User: Fold this.
Amino acid sequence: MARVYLGLGGNLDAPVHQLRSALEHIRGLPETRLVAVSPFYGSTAVGPGTQPDYVNAACELRTALEPLTLLDQLQAIEQRQGRQRGPEQWAPRTLDLDILLYAGQVIDLPRLTVPHPRLDQRNFVLRPLQDLNPQLCLPDGRRVADLLAQVGDAGLWALAEAGDPA
Assistant:
């Protein structure tokens, strides 16, 4: 079974509830076991315009699903929870589920890039990953802890409400 790390985020329609609901759906994925969930963090929205702050987390899975099958399952969860995909890259959303890392592989397909693009520049991704696995490295050998030290924690804060237990 592949070790996979997912990023979760949202900033519309009660984002903490959206993330908790997504985790329940992830628990129900076939041939998949939810191993751990990071604490939840608030983060300042990235991109143009003004929009609400995000809630972000990460989770660790063990899955027998192939990467594109897992992606399809995650996009179905997003759609069930009201995610509307449009031309804007950084638009507000109810839920965003991203495959951050998949079994130490580098994947470059039209529908999926792993490690997730810009993962190494986003503290709202790096901090939850480090919480899950302080020794975690990207496929190129860079340590998540070192990347987080370079990026810093500006615009990121721990939420009083803890993340979901696995």
In short: The chain has one domain: 2-158. The first strand starts at residue 2 and ends at 10.
